[in-house]
Write a structure and sequence with these properties.
The complex is a heterotrimer of chains A (about 350), B (about 600) and C (about 240). Chain A is about 75% helix and about 0% strand. Chain A is built from 14 helices and 2 strands; from the N terminus they run H-H-H-H-H-H-H-E-E-H-H-H-H-H-H-H. In chain B, helix 3 runs parallel beside helix 5 and helix 10 packs parallel to helix 12. Chain B has 3 domains: about 210 residues, no CATH class; about 160 residues, Rossmann fold, CATH 3.40.50.300; about 80 residues, no CATH class. Chain B has 23 helices and 14 strands. A 6-stranded mixed beta sheet of chain B has the order 10-11-12-7-13-14, sandwiched between helices. Chain B has a 4-stranded antiparallel beta sheet with strand order 6-5-8-9, with helices on one face. Helix content of chain B is about 55%, strand content about 10%. Chain C has 10 helices and 10 strands. In chain C, the strands form 2 sheets. A 6-stranded mixed beta sheet of chain C has the order 6-7-8-3-9-10, with helices on both faces. A 4-stranded antiparallel beta sheet of chain C has the order 2-1-4-5, with helices on one face. In chain C, strand 4 and strand 5 form a beta hairpin. In chain C, helix 3 packs parallel to helix 6. The longest helix of chain C is centred in the middle third of the chain and has 14 residues. Chain C is globular. The chains are: A mainly alpha (about 350), B alpha/beta (about 600), C alpha/beta (about 240). Chains in contact: A-B, A-C, B-C.
Chain lengths: ~350, ~600, ~240
């Protein structure tokens, strides 16, 4: 292989890796704050691209129904909980948070269906439709399991993935979509042709990682998330509600996931279930970062992109096998770093 | 339910099953065949995930390895499927052993994640292997036959499947009732306790991982020769989740949970496939939604699974275990007064903090020595250094003249140092007898195969006698078949002492045995410890409670801020101003 | 004078084990009250129950209201504040951030935050020096100061301290107790759980002795200080 090909492959890998970076950072954010390994996170990214595609085709995106169904479920669960606890004064707030607020974006999407909105607005509508999904799933699937082990949460996360990808097939249908390119321009750099789209993907990864860093370092809200991740009991003792921190983490991560979907949409044809594999690959990056370190996660996600790009050059059929097999040595290295700890997980009931 | 009604139920169920292919419609026979195969895989997961706490999202990959191995072999060589079975089992066994050896040391959630990784990797590999028929798969696989009698028909292969399942259930329940089985049943949440009893956690985990893979491989072999066709799609991650759902739905309270779970999921799946098309045109897509929702609901509301609900409705009496007339052979304690433990310059650092700083003391056979000090004095760290739970950063530890510095916990336990825990570590769901039997782990030798094949009856009877003797020694003999979780804390502490005694120790090391005990309980415990000493047992007590220690010990070592403050009789310690200050605090 | 905190017949169970049985205590405004007793007596459990971290039976009245229905955060918002034995600092964050998060409930009040920083740094000049240091790298004494400081940022009216002297060298213990005594002048009442009986009783106005989950003695701190029964609880020899 000559250096030119290597360079092209690396460049290609970094572009894909940039997408993985955003998703991996979101995964780490959710895990560190809530201890949930949010397997359906890749789906969130894919849904945002599919939503944008539907909007561009002048259709009502399936996401609308997904959000409405989830919001209805969450509202019912919250109401039942509040009634059971006799905490009726909080009912209006619940109706606002779980009923009205999540249904605003679907309403906007419904009202604007078929309108020829400018691209930026289309993206905004798509993104706002994506945002409520993960926090609602948190309310429905994970909050009733507060205090469960990471393992139980992981099993539930896997189940949730299958549930929402089934719903996605129902709402989006089996056909694949590609969104309109944001720009078709390209330029030359060191003799390589770089499309504007590629540059945008990498730049977005850099900018949004930077914003996330600033948020954690310079806002009290960001610090409260860091604090929850660092010490949950400590966080409660200073008045940070872990539940609220969790919702915030899911919301922020969704923004990252949704954004990466919008970026990847014009480059790859996405199907209702494409998100899973994308999410898992980003996840390999997150594991390189030990699910704690944001900078190492970002580097790891880039590495996965490059590995994938080289693997598909050598043997495109074995690409997936190679990328996933790479996870095992990484896990071993990670586990070696942290040392083996036989944590005492929950006792068996009965 | 007692043993004979249990046998009757199982017998009747078997009889009813034998009649099914003669009476039921072909559709239900096929359904039962699928249930049987799924139950085999789920049985492995009950063992591995339900009991052992090792979650696998990749079990279908092992089914695929078994299925592809036999399909490829019988099609290319034209030889008997029975040889294919050998190949299927060896292939799954070897691959599982390699994967397990590489990944089972992973802590916490890293292990299940790795199963997703290799599950995917193997699934993507199937169509790429030459001779495996790419995405179309392999067809016209021969049927199973014995001496020319073909089991091609679904009615006939039914007997093969359920016979294998029956055998597997028999073997697994035998295993769970054996020496290694008690270790398997303690893996979840009992890792620290098992290590202190000399159990190699890694070996137990690896073995159940391989057993689960073998059961999956067997399922794959049956599947290949029943459907006579294999392609990659049944071995991806979705069916893996279904198997996990079966194991969790059935629950790990009993091996029959696997059959219950498999039956429930397969029937529900069938029912959903029937009913959904009436409700929507997108039935196929909603199926997976339904399972996933079921799995989530199950974990939210019935984490113990179906079997635990059934067992709660029909509580089972524990069968009385046969006991031999003699217990296990005991080692002779060294004569009173010989040096037992010699610690010189013990040091342990955690980061910048020196938890134990150059502590030296010795102990003689036949005495009760108290190691005391206020909170944070370094007693517990000292304790963990002696028992090998923590590696030391300096100093030498000798036990009966032998160097034990930085030996493994298992080795130290084997030399005759047995410990208890400050926060009692018992198996609340197991009987007192089973809890104490775990103490005999290092004195017995039955392996996994021996346990599964019931070759351990003599050894079990001897160990049971030993455990009953130790229970009697601490006064709990009449509650041997009660669940340990039903005991009051005082009795749980004593039960831990009985478990430690069952390992035939020379030195008993107790970690804050009086913590949380009421006055009467403390007095009873002190009485029992004195009796043990009179029988020749040497006891090292790490304690905070001065009152408990005062009337009990022969000598005291007092620690404060990681260093030894003094050593001497209880009276000398009490009147020592340094000790008073350490305990009551200096003047502010 | 009505009590700030009134605990009546409080019991806590861990599974089948009762860790705290029928305990009744009260703290008057401006008072320092100490609960002393040996390891495993249930002191930490008692404080966790008052804070709402563990479930309990019995009545906890704080500032005249029954707090049974209030969560940890709501109790905190009313000025009930706990510094636990394990400190529960944000280990990978700076001293400054730990303190800042202590005032999380008052995050929109910049003046309050500025004044509180000044007050805490006034009490603990050492923390001001270590402002940018990561909490995990502090010494034991500094960590305790940070835990105290973080709690003081939360506008406490009743500060519950669990073993503030644990694992600290005598000089630092003296320093910590001097600061606890000075809290009275800031209008903060203190419920102090300690093993270091002498120092605690010398600082406190009133004391309770807790033994295996039950109160065995109570009285004015100065009386308990010279009570032989207290010594016996610690060093044994009731007879």
């Amino acid at each position: 292989m000559d250096t030119d090909i290597a360079l092209i492959l690396t460049l290609d890998g970094i572009t894909t890796g940039a997408i993985y970076v955003l998703i991996a950072l979101g995964t780490v954010l959710i895990f560190s704050v809530t201890r949930v390994i949010f397997v359906p996170f890749g789906d969130i990214a894919a849904f945002s691209a599919l939503t944008l595609a539907a909007i561009q085709l002048g259709r009502l995106p399936g996401t609308v129904w997904l959000v409405v169904v989830l919001a209805a479920l969450a509202l019912v669960m919250e109401t039942v909980d509040l009634v059971r606890r006799g905490d009726l004064p909080r009912l209006p707030r619940a109706a606002l948070l779980y009923g009205l607020l999540p249904c605003l974006p679907p309403a906007i999407a419904w009202l604007t269906t078929g309108m020829k909105l400018p691209m930026a607005l289309q993206m905004l509508v798509a993104l706002s439709l994506i945002l409520p999904i993960a926090p609602l799933i948190d309310r429905i699937a994970f909050r009733p399991l507060a205090g469960a082990s990471t393992l139980i949460l992981l099993i539930v996360a896997v189940a949730v993935h299958f549930a929402i990808s089934g719903l996605a097939l129902l709402f989006f249908g089996p056909e694949g979509f590609r969104t309109e390119p944001i720009s078709t321009a390209s330029f030359d750099l060191f003799g390589l042709t770089i499309t504007f789209q590629m540059a945008l993907m990498v730049a977005s990864a850099v900018i949004f990682s930077g914003l996330l860093f600033l948020y954690f370092e310079h806002t009290i809200s960001g610090k409260s998330l860091k604090a929850t991740a660092s010490n949950r009991t400590g966080a409660r003792l200073v008045g940070i509600r872990p539940v609220r921190a969790g919702t915030l983490a899911f919301l922020l991560a969704s923004a990252l996931g949704g954004l990466s979907g919008l970026l990847i949409g014009p480059v790859t044809t996405l199907y209702y279930d494409s998100g899973f594999i994308i999410g898992l690959k980003a996840f390999v990056g997150a594991i390189i970062g030990g699910l704690v370190s944001y900078p190492v996660t970002a580097i790891g996600a880039l590495l996965v992109g490059v590995l994938e790009s080289f693997a598909s050059f050598y043997d495109s059929a074995l690409k997936e096998t190679i990328v996933f097999s790479a996870l095992i040595p990484i896990l071993l290295w990670r586990s070696f770093l942290t040392g083996s700890h036989d944590e005492e997980d929950e006792e068996i009931e009965g | 339910m007692n043993l004979s009604t249990h046998r009757l139920t199982v017998g009747l169920a078997c009889l009813a099953l034998m009649l099914v292919p003669l009476l039921a419609s072909p559709f239900y026979v096929t359904l039962l065949n699928f249930i049987g195969i799924a139950a085999l895989v789920a049985l492995g997961l009950v063992l591995m995930t339900g009991l052992g706490g090792l979650t696998s999202f990749g079990q279908a990959a092992f089914v695929g390895i078994g299925a592809y191995a036999t399909a490829w072999f019988t099609l290319t060589t034209g030889l008997s499927p029975w040889l294919g079975l050998l190949l299927a089992l060896s292939a799954t066994g070897v691959i599982a052993a390699c994967l397990g050896a590489a990944t089972l040391r992973l802590g916490g959630h890293f292990l299940p994640l790795s199963t997703i990784a290799w599950g995917f990797a193997i699934y993507f590999l199937f169509p790429e292997i030459p001779g495996f028929g790419q995405h179309d798969g392999l067809k016209d696989i021969p049927a199973i036959s014995i001496a020319g009698f073909s089991f091609a028909e679904n009615r006939r292969v039914f007997y093969v499947i359920w016979l294998f399942l029956g055998a597997a259930i028999w073997l697994v329940s035998n295993l769970l009732n054996s020496r290694q089985g008690r270790a398997i049943r303690s893996l979840r949440g009992g890792a620290v306790m098992l290590a202190s009893l000399g159990v190699s956690l890694f070996r137990v985990r690896l073995t159940i991982f391989v057993i689960a893979a073998l059961l999956a491989g067997l399922g794959g072999w049956l599947y290949a020769h029943m459907t006579r066709f294999v392609s990659p799609s049944p071995f991806e991650i979705r069916p893996s989740i279904e198997f996990l759902l079966m194991a969790l739905a059935g629950g790990s309270a009993s091996v029959y949970g696997a059959v219950m779970g498999a039956g429930l999921v397969v029937l529900l799946k069938n029912w959903i496939q029937d009913i959904l098309p009436h409700l929507t045109t997108n039935a196929g897509q909603l199926e997976i939604v339904a399972y996933s929702v079921m799995l989530v609901l199950l974990l939210q509301y019935a984490r113990g699974g179906l079997m635990s609900l059934i067992l709660r409705a029909f509580p089972q009496r524990e069968p009385v275990r046969p006991a031999a007339s003699h217990g296990l052979p005991h080692r002779a304690p060294p004569p009173a007064g010989t040096p037992l433990l010699e610690i010189v310059g013990a040091t342990k650092r955690f980061g910048g903090l020196v938890a134990v700083n150059d502590v030296s003391f010795g102990m003689q056979s036949g005495e009760i020595l108290g190691l005391i000090g206020p909170n944070g004095a370094g007693k517990s760290t000292m304790f963990n250094l002696i028992t090998g739970a923590l590696p030391s950063d300096g100093g030498s530890f000798r036990f009966m003249g032998e160097e034990i510095t930085n030996l493994s916990q298992a080795r130290i336990a084997g030399l005759g140092i047995a410990r208890t825990f400050q926060h009692v570590k018992l198996r609340p769901g197991m009987t007192l007898l089973d809890n104490v039997l775990m103490g005999t782990y290092l004195r017995t030798s039955t392996g996994f195969l021996g346990g599964a094949l019931r070759l351990d009856r003599v050894e079990e009877a001897t160990a049971t006698r030993e455990a009953l003797d130790q229970l009697a020694r601490v006064g709990l003999a009449d509650q041997a078949y009660e669940k340990a979780g039903n005991l009051a804390l005082g009795h749980q502490r004593v039960l831990e002492v009985a478990r430690a005694l069952a390992s035939d120790p020379i030195l008993l090391v107790l970690d804050e045995p009086a913590a949380g005990l009421r006055k009467g309980e403390k007095e009873a415990l002190a009485r029992q410890l004195r009796e043990l000493r009179d029988q020749g047992m040497s006891i090292l007590l790490v304690e905070h409670d001065m009152e408990f220690v005062m009337g009990l010990v022969d000598r005291l070592v007092v620690m404060n801020f990681g260093s030894k403050l003094m050593e001497g009789t209880p009276e000398a310690a009490r009147s020592n101003p340094l000790v008073q200050e350490a305990y009551l605090g200096g003047q502010a | 004078m009505s009590a700030l905190l009134d605990v009546a017949r409080l019991s806590v169970n861990y599974g089948k084990v009762e860790a705290v049985t029928n305990v009744s205590i009260s703290v008057a405004p401006g008072q320092i009250v100490t609960i002393i007793g040996p390891n495993g007596a249930g002191k930490t459990t008692l404080l966790s129950a008052i804070m709402g971290l563990v479930k309990s039976r019995g009545i906890v009245r704080y500032d005249g209201m029954d707090v049974a229905r209030l969560g940890v955060e709501d109790r905190l918002a009313n000025g009930l504040c706990l510094v636990p034995e394990s400190r529960e600092l944000f280990g990978d964050m700076s001293v400054h951030d730990n303190l800042l998060l202590g005032a999380y409930l008052y995050r929109h009040d910049a003046t309050y935050i500025r004044d509180s920083f000044e007050r805490v740094f006034g009490l603990f000049p050492r923390l001001a020096e270590r402002r940018t240091q990561i909490a995990n790298t502090l010494s034991g004494g500094e960590r305790q100061m940070l835990a105290l400081g973080r709690a003081l940022m939360a506008k406490p009216r009743l500060l519950m301290l669990d073993e503030p002297s644990l694992g600290l060298a005598p000089l630092i213990v003296r320093e910590i107790f001097r600061i606890i005594a000075s809290l009275r002048t800031l209008g903060v009442s203190v419920l102090l759980v300690e093993q270091n009986a002498r120092a605690a009783l010398e600082t406190a106005d009133f004391g309770y002795v807790l033994e295996t989950g039950e109160l065995s003695l109570e009285g004015r701190a100065s009386d308990l200080l010279h009570d032989q029964r207290v010594t016996a609880t610690y060093l044994g020899g009731h007879t």
